[in-house]
Amino acid sequence: MEVVNAVGRRKAAVARVYVSEGSGKITVNNREFEQYFPSSILQYVVKQPLSKLDVAEKYDIKLNLCGGGFKGQSEAARLAITRALIKIDPETKPALKAEGFVTRDPRAVERKKPGQPKARKRFQFSKR
Length: 128
Known about the structure:
By secondary structure, the protein is α+β, with helices and mostly antiparallel strands.
């Protein structure tokens, strides 16, 4: 099996993933996975599609993450890994889709409007 690549996005974060056969090693931006995501919750989010299909020990994963924060990056990585796994074996798509891993979350920050301090917040109204 050659290297399979995919892209995942969430908010401002972009994740490029390269999946190859191996022993289950995950590298993020040339660093250890546990070092890049010290939070166990974020580690769990990234590994969700692998644990769902029971293939965590079957593939080596190299992730390039840029933009956004830790949460957005972890969810972008989850989407990228899901898309790569579907490229490898299209029969796994229904199982991953049922868990909601295939759908790209469209929510993003609303733009700031002119004449307002934030997107929806207004300046204080003065009657006189």
